[in-house]
Amino acid sequence: MTTPIEVSGSESEAQPEAVLAGVGAKQIQGRSLGQIAWLRLRRDKVALTGGVIVVLLIVVAIVGPFLVQSPLTYHQDLIDPTFNRPNSGIWHTGISGDHWLGVEPGTGRDMLARIVHGARISLLVAFLATLLSVVIGVVLGITAGYFGRWVDTVISRAMDAFLAFPLLLFAIALVGVVSDGAFGLKGNGLRVSVLVFVIGFFNWPYIGRVIRGQTLSLREREFVDAARSLGARNGYILFKELLPNLVAPILVYSTLLIPTNILFEAALSFLGVGVIPPTPSWGGMLTLAVPIYSSDPMYMIVPGLAIFITVLAFNLLGDGLRDALDPRAK
Amino acid sequence: MLAYIIRRLIGAVLMLLLVSLVTFGIFFWIPKLAGQTTDQLAAAYVGKAPTAQAIQDTKERLGLDKPVIVQYGTYLKGIVAGQDFKAGPVVDHCPAPCLGYSFRTSQPVLPQLMDRAPATLSLAIGASIIWLAAGISIGVLSALRRGSIWDRTAMVIALGGVSLPIYFTGLVSLAIFSYSLGIFPGGGSYVPFTQDPGTWFQSLVLPWVTLAFLYAAMYARLTRAGMLETLGEDYIRTARAKGLPERTVITKHALRSTLTPILTIFGLDLGLMLGGAVLTENTFSIPGLGQLAISSIGTGDLPVVLGVTLLAAFFIVMINLVVDLLYAAIDPRVRLG
């Protein structure tokens, strides 16, 4: 039988600062993973540039549409009726003080306004779809990784199945069969919901796999054993013990999923199953550019560059975040 | 080994069943869920100005008034055993594997798919050879010269490549190389290989390169990351320590295990593409499976869409099976069983 050692109050309090005081005048600061990541990210100029562009794009998407002119107004007076293209500006783009990016061939609608309104749709769909994928992916990934056995088998097989779906065809088919007025939604409200559902629902296995893999190694760690021996329930361990340790991969893969989803939305709009015209979208503008790219290259370049810059900015930020949050990096 | 293959084949069949069920559900169950009646559904398949009689006939012909699961069963039976279709007094027999008849052209679906497949196959195979060769070699070189000017340039271009939509690069390349310089023919110039190999090749160069650029960029990034991780492994240090030439260490030890995950992704990508490179075919007007699917969705021609989707899933599942078998050949750590 062991008897507990009597410990007096003063002895039980360890004082690390007192030990460190002898090392030097400079105090050693404890840094959280977040602080370390931020310090690393601040040094990464490329990622930071991406981050700044992302913030600017979000601001443009939120307040931009209130500042630009209507994207639906036809400026027929700016269109040359013979060639059906703008009659002014360099290379017949219609660029002027009133129309900074020129006007659309044929209709004379303001390009800047269409790009800015397109940004709102693009980011809205991409963010919501990413959120949906991340929620499904994290919940199923963490469940599969933590419980293992048949739960893992079922969820992992489901991930394989989802990866084998011809996604683009499914998306186009789904948008096609959901008629207007379904689920009590109409017009673009319905279309955006369907887009978010399709893109988000079929993309979760990518993040699900990552989270499952991380959970598999995390659940073997001592703190999980400790929590379990203290009598914690599975739900508590999953969401209070494991989830906080998964914040880094979730953040990184969300940031990298957003550009994929932006491209996906643009592709669907390009194929004519995105938001309904005349609501502007970047992919939709490129569709209109296909028959006239040889005579009006600007009309193809502007929305193309908008997609490119947006996707690139998110990719740069995502890559930077991944490097900054990598615990193995020094 | 044989047991493994049999188990995987059963898995492949189950996967195809699942894909066909989901596709079937999208067309017949989702509309019901969204509040469409059977009459409305039938009317959509009749075409313009449907009469009450035509709607009734369509409902009976397609069995739309039966539960979705029964319709699905009929469809499956057609694939396995063939199916008889009543077209007025005549009975058409569609031999197995029967994918049904097009609603629009009343032609059987399978020959239509076979008709379109060569174009998609030409596009996918050609592009994948280019992107595998370019992507993997660029990725390996970048990893070996990490931080060099070559590495940084290659990775900037690769990041740009994965950030560009294919229909945009396709249009730009058409504008430059076809419209302005006149080196390659423009969109819609595809002819089958059997008809004129020269023109076939010329018409596919731009689509191949455009498609391969996107994927090469992706594979270069993946290869570089995988290679860097592998080079940090202990067994690479061991291989070097026992005095193997650097060349052997890289090709025999590092590259092999780097290639395993890339092979998996390649299987998925190639499989998806064989079922129709929708965006590329659309941009360059190549009459492949993807374009057939898009035009069929536009006209509500369900059996054709179902056929393309199933064929795509079939390719994905089969290629994955091949990839898993190849694993054992590439990576000595993998043992099947």
From TrEMBL, chain A:
InterPro entries for the chain: BP-dependent_transpt_permease, MetI-like, MetI-like_sf, OppC_N
Keyword Transmembrane (UniProt): yes
Alphabetical list of PROSITE patterns matching this protein: ABC_TM1
CDD domains given in the database record: TM_PBP2
Domain ABC transmembrane type-1 span(s) in chain numbering: 119-318
Protein's UniProt name: ABC transporter permease subunit
One Gene Ontology CC term in the entry: plasma membrane
Organism from which the protein derives: Actinomadura rayongensis
Keyword Transport: yes
Pfam families assigned: BPD_transp_1, OppC_N
Transmembrane segments: 46-68, 121-147, 159-178, 190-211, 250-277, 297-318
Gene3D superfamilies, per database record: MetI-like
UniProt record similarity statement: Belongs to the binding-protein-dependent transport system permease family.
Topology with respect to the bilayer: Multi-pass membrane protein
Subcellular location: Cell membrane
Keywords assigned: Cell membrane, Membrane, Transmembrane, Transmembrane helix, Transport
GO biological process: transmembrane transport
TrEMBL record, chain B:
Coiled-coil portions: none
Record keywords: Cell membrane, Membrane, Transmembrane, Transmembrane helix, Transport
Gene Ontology CC annotations of this record: plasma membrane
Matches recorded under InterPro entries: BPD_transp_1_N (IPR045621), MetI-like (IPR000515), MetI-like_sf (IPR035906)
Annotated family: Belongs to the binding-protein-dependent transport system permease family.
Entry's localization field: Cell membrane
TM spans (from-to): 9-30, 121-144, 156-180, 200-220, 262-284, 304-330
Protein's membrane topology: Multi-pass membrane protein
Name by which UniProt lists this protein: ABC transporter permease subunit
Keyword Transmembrane: yes
Pfam families per record: BPD_transp_1 (PF00528), BPD_transp_1_N (PF19300)
Residue span, ABC transmembrane type-1 domain: 117-327
Origin species: Actinomadura rayongensis
CDD domains registered for this protein in UniProt: TM_PBP2
Protein's GO biological process: transmembrane transport
Stored PANTHER family: ABC TRANSPORTER PERMEASE PROTEIN (PTHR43163:SF2), DIPEPTIDE TRANSPORT SYSTEM PERMEASE PROTEIN DPPB-RELATED (PTHR43163)
Highest taxon above the source species: Bacteria
